[in-house]
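Aim 2 progress update. The chain analyzed this quarter is reproduced below.
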Amino acid sequence: LNSAILGFPRRDVEKRFDRIVEFAGLQEFIDAPLRTYSTGMGARLGFSVATDVQPEILIVDEILGVGDATFQQKSFERIQSFQASGSTILLVTHSLERVREMCTRAIWLDQGNLVMEGNAEQVVGQYLEHNKQKEETRLQKQHTIEKEEKKEEKKEDAPKRWGTQRAEITDVCIENSVGNEQRIFQTGDELNLRIRYHAHELIDDAVFGMAVHSHSGVHITGPNTQVAGLELPALQGQGEVLFRVPALPLLEGLYHISVAIVNRADTEIYDYHDRLYDFRVDNTGNPSAEKYGLMTLQGAWYFQENCSSDH
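Predicted structure tokens:
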């Protein structure tokens, strides 16, 4: 049916049949009724038929997202060969990497409305910046709502905050390298955590700490001023401390920060905020970023040829 729609004579289809089926990877299912095919199987067969001869114009609608990795790579290579031979490719996709790899021009549509048209790299860059700002706004709005909720809650009833309150954390800001509040970072960015406090009486043994948890609950790290060797003066009244991460080692994901003030003996918690502050690491557009796990070791690989077994 696909072949008939494309105008291929039956004789041509019979000649191409084995080649089309092999490319689609459907040898085991080719005798089954088409109605039993999954959406992906149908798409693979349709693509294989449509691209068995080189078209002048090829419209590709998300086909590179169906099938296994082998079929996707074969399809990608076939389209690249068409491009090299002068065919025009109209690619409909949500994959920004495919747009960058395959397209010279791009159109950004939002609910059917044209947002931007132009150089593919520029359109992708603007799209990423737009999404980053949307997520930044969402996280900031969530943070503002949570701050207002904490003000309204009685401290003894707040499930994610506890302590004697002799020293109180009054504000927490997640900032970028220039001191502006920010909620979305990339691996390797500078991140600063600013903790403002109010000591309601003289506190001469305060320790400030923070912890980072992944969204799945894994406790990743928990530095504090005592372990770092920072001697704090006695606290009284208002002040602030700053924790600086020069190069964020975390990989993509949503993370939650806890902050606390405790005493040096760790026998009294003055104020503890449990996972109340969120930030996201988004490495879209950062092809050099690692993809697996929670963090990078920031190591380097070296190849040493012809090493003897003695070393």
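The longest strand covers residues 191-203. The CA atoms of residues 207 and 226 lie 6 Å apart. These observations will guide the mutagenesis experiments scheduled for the next reporting period.
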